[in-house]
From TrEMBL:
Residues 2-116 form the Response regulatory domain. Residues 124-219 form the OmpR/PhoB-type domain. The modification 4-aspartylphosphate is found at D51. CDD domains: REC_OmpR_CusR-like, trans_reg_C. This is Response regulator transcription factor. It comes from Actinomadura violacea.
Amino acid sequence: MRVLIVEDERVLADTIAEGLREEAMAVDVVYDGDDALDRASYNEYDVVVLDRDLPTVHGDEVCRELAGRRAPARILMLTAAGDVEDRVAGLSLGADDYLPKPFVFGELVARVRALARRSGAPVPPVLEGRGIRLDPHRRRVARDGRELRLTNKEFAVLEELLRAEGGVVSAERLLERAWDENIDPFSNIVRVTMATLRRKLGAPAVIETVTGSGYRLEAP
């Protein structure tokens, strides 16, 4: 899952980003409306967490522009203006959800995950396949009833493979979905992560390398 944080309070923005990364999300951060529109024009996001009072381009205009593009990203408006009139105004601009400040971080995570399930094709809250059961909300994964301890990146990669339902997922796609834009596109990090993930999943092997294309979960 990939998230864009748009928040001019830098400490808050970076704190939210670090917290979401601990939830195995790929997170990019910008601090003004101009950069938000630019970033969303060439990166694919599941959710945009958008502050309303932004410099350069106001959050309302950013929301209106993103909603008008009919992009797959869902918009969670995050702002200190929390009365009913403000919520109605924010939702009327195209936001999908509204969370006033101050907020409980656990609620933010739950709302981001709920919105991500609505971006693109419907996705069940718990992903299953080849004896693997992955619960993104509880950050738990098991194979054949055996609990697995995965790193955040291993968890994110496995989540993408399960979401693909047997389809091939390219290394480039995994870089986009499990890491953020600061990753070196020529890095071998996907291959290394795939090797450790395979080892933790154990036998029989379920992740297939499709030469020249990427990776997929093998059919039963």
